[in-house]
Specification:
- By secondary structure, the protein is an alpha/beta fold.
- The protein folds into 2 domains: 5-75, Helix Hairpins; 89-154, Chitinase A, domain 3, CATH 3.10.50.30.
- It contains 3 helices and 7 strands, in the order βααββββαββ.
- The strands form 2 sheets. It has a 5-stranded mixed β-sheet with strand order 5-4-3-7-6.
- α1 packs antiparallel against α2 (47-72).
- The protein is elongated and about 70 Å long.
- The model has no long low-confidence stretch (mean pLDDT 93).
């Protein structure tokens, strides 16, 4: 994991919520499953015990991952809206086609969710429009070829 992980306040809170759920709900469930499986006797051929141990490893691994993520997280502060930056919501038009307008929020890579129009600051589109102003036309370099977008609004 790189040194800096950018998160919006909402993303930070979502990660904290997942971490708390894992610690307060999932971890006790796994511990109970382990105890129940041990009570069945011989552990060498106990599928329930093996499954509970595997689940325990996944839960503990995810807890460690989330704790480390929160340690290195840098919160994205609200910025002015005169140019595109982390945390900004941007309305863009593709290749001067007024029917092809999209709105995206630029977030850190751990919070990216393209299906909800949250794109990573490391994506080709975000890189192309970073620091652009309303009215700027930017060229996006993508694996499928370059295309232009026009920044219509920064929120």
């Amino acid at each position: 994991m790189s040194n800096k992980v950018y998160l919006t306040n909402e993303g930070f809170l979502e990660i904290e919520e997942e971490l708390n759920n894992l610690k307060e709900v999932k971890r006790p469930e796994v511990i109970k499953a382990l105890k129940d499986a041990r009570a069945l006797g011989d552990l060498s051929e106990n599928a329930d015990y093996d499954a509970a141990r595997n689940e325990q490893a996944k839960v503990e691994g995810r807890i460690q991952e989330l704790e480390k993520l929160l340690e290195v997280a840098e919160l994205i502060e609200k910025r002015d809206t005169d140019k595109v930056g982390l945390g900004a919501t941007v309305k863009i038009m593709y290749d001067e086609d007024e029917d092809d307008v999209e709105e995206y929020r630029i977030v850190g890579s751990k919070e990216a969710d393209p299906s909800n129009n949250k794109i990573s600051n490391e994506s080709p589109l975000a890189k192309a429009i970073m620091n652009a102003k309303v009215g700027d036309i930017c060229t996006v370099e993508s694996p499928n070829g370059n295309y232009n977008v026009k920044v219509l609004e920064i929120m």
